[in-house]
Write a structure and sequence with these properties.
Blueprint: E1 7-8, E2 23-24, H1 31-40, E3 49-52, H2 59-73, E4 80-84, H3 85-98, H4 101-109, E5 113-117, H5 126-141, E6 145-150, H6 162-168, E7 172-175, H7 181-194, H8 201-210, H9 215-231, H10 238-245
Parallel strand pairs: 1-2, 3-6, 3-7, 4-5, 5-6
């Protein structure tokens, strides 16, 4: 389905032009059952789900894809919210100033699915951390799903208050690893399809073996290779990629 936020790397489905697709290789095979558990409500003990990985590993893309899939597959009355943690802190500060904190709480604490992205950015924002703790508690007590992401595991975020770290570690912690060559090739093919770039298998293999593991960077690689070959009126094949790499 177009709303499915993951596909197996190397499959033809991985070449879908749907930007909500999150490509999963064997290094991140745990992502598939975890996402399915979020969407269909299985494994209630996996709540909250905490996704961690370095910058560029795909945390935000995955979180947004989960929210999109939820909205596509659940009834309209089932509310899914995605928010960057820094925006959550800003919204709280604005609500305090406007004396409308109850409205903010009603928005987040009544969600069927609430996703808080990059919670490590709440460092130094004590009020927002307390508010997030109470929000998580309310959501879990109501049987609703919570997903959080950060650059490191909860126990590796000492700058956050212990109460918040304990909530984040109480469910399932899912580390995202950088893509290996087979997954990098699937990502490159996916980005080539998105950009309507015709690229040979040999060129894909060469790029997958020699380019960084950051998915966001791989997207830029396709754009740069395509631009360079178009300017020189060359196909995107192994000789062209070899020249670009040099």
């Amino acid at each position: 389905p177009a709303a499915t936020p993951y596909q197996a790397a190397g499959s033809r489905a991985a070449a879908s032009v749907d930007p909500a697709v999150f490509l999963v290789g064997p290094e991140n095979r745990l992502v598939i059952p975890v996402v399915q558990a979020v969407l269909d409500g299985t494994h209630p003990a996996w709540n909250p789900i905490f996704i961690c990985g370095p910058s560029g590993s795909g945390k935000t893309h995955l979180a947004q894809a989960i929210a999109a899939a939820w909205r596509s597959t659940h009834p309209r009355r089932s509310k899914a919210l995605y928010v960057a943690a820094s925006d959550f802190a800003r919204q709280l500060a604005e609500a305090i100033e406007a004396e409308s904190v109850d409205d903010l709480r009603n928005c987040y604490r009544t969600a069927s699915l609430a996703i808080f992205d990059e919670v490590g950015h709440l460092c130094g924002k004590v009020a927002a951390q307390y508010e997030l703790v109470y929000t998580i508690d309310t959501l879990l007590a109501g049987g609703n799903r919570v997903v959080l992401t950060a650059a490191a595991a909860p126990w590796e975020l000492p700058e956050l208050m212990p109460a918040l770290r304990s909530r984040m570690a109480a469910g399932l912690v899912v580390p995202l690893a950088g893509p290996r060559p087979a997954t990098r090739k699937a990502l490159l093919r996916h980005f080539a399809d998105l950009q309507r770039a015709v690229i040979t298998e040999g060129a894909l293999n060469l790029l997958a073996d020699n380019c960084p593991t950051n998915p966001a960077t791989l997207k830029g690689v396709i754009a740069q290779v395509r631009a360079g070959t178009e300017l020189e009126c060359r196909p995107i094949d192994e000789p062209a990629v070899s020249d670009w790499l040099r």
